Amino acid sequence: MFTSQGPTLRELAVQALTSVERGYDLLAPKFDETPFRTPVRMLDAVEEALAEHGGSFGSGLDLCCGTGAALPLLRRLCRDRVTGVDLSAGMLRQAALSLPEGADLVRADALALPEALTASYDLAVSFGAFGHFLPTQRPALFSGVHRALRPGGVFAFPIGAPIPPTSPLWWAVAGFDAAMRVRNAVWRPPFVMYYRSFPWGPVRAELDAAGFTVGTVPLEHFGRRPDGTPRWRLVLARKDRRAPAGDPPGGL
């Protein structure tokens, strides 16, 4: 799980007792040596699906980009500007060490994206970050992505099939979430990270409410469950190509 160059148990404990922003600042130099980094297998599967179902894009946005694992993917898929956004200055410093040519980095809260990013992108992606947002925050998150996309733009992210309660993994993530809820009840500042707070039904309804047309495609790299359903899907949420009436040309 962790390489010998990864964080120690003490370092992880210190991180968990700070805020999300400060925690990732501390973890950033060793983040890529942890299992928290998006696996290359997932990045490859998403890139293949986007190339097949979306083709080439203009500009790309990586929301909560961390150390920049997905920026090379965006650079290959997008013809124009590629931007990584993250709240943690430490993570962005790490991303800058291997920043692809033609990519830039912006430090910003995903819940309050800068006005300069409005209607600027044709593709937005995000990997492994949604557990950092409470369910009550998701409408603002999705609305912000919708504003950042041009008409016809796509918001894409992978989502796994529900874990059955018979699986040991279900109990592991449920135990982690319970421990985090206790930690946040008794310790400040809170560290928001929950693995079971992103159910597909409510998420799809919230994407619809934000103005997206939502579909999914299977990520066949990860196979199928015994009932034949995909273990992982790629969500493709598309912004309507028609700009709302009264908007200035080229913007929202």
From TrEMBL:
It holds the Pfam family Methyltransf_25. It comes from Streptomyces cirratus. This is Methyltransferase. Keywords: Methyltransferase, Transferase. Residues 61-153 form the Methyltransferase domain. CDD domains: AdoMet_MTases (cd02440). The keyword Kinase does not apply. GO terms for biological process: methylation. One of its GO terms (molecular function) is methyltransferase activity. InterPro entries: Methyltransf_25, Methyltransf_Superfamily, SAM-dependent_MTases_sf.
